[in-house]
What does this fold into?
Amino acid sequence: TDTDGLRVLLIRQGTDLGRVSDDLTGAVPGGNFPVDSGLAKRDAEELKAQIETSALCEPFKSRLVAAAVELVTADTALVDSQGSAGAADLLATSQQKYQAINDLINNPPSA
It folds into this structure.
């Protein structure tokens, strides 16, 4: 189903955000914030594109698109921070947006 493919993209997004967290905390020596945050943004954009072209029913599809736009916006702000002092707060926002879309995909509203 269309949501199965979206779940795969969500796994990638979650992994990307985990790497960004590791970069910010220094958990992984030699972490690369610009690369990892860029991957998160790229994968959020891909998720949004997949939702937009999916055959999901309305209004579920529109809700997912709106959630994906919020995720892309959050990940874009994270990339733009370049790992500055506010990056941890921006990461928390990205993680919240990721969780929101993840919850929506895994627990779709009943018709």
Notes: The mean pLDDT is 93.
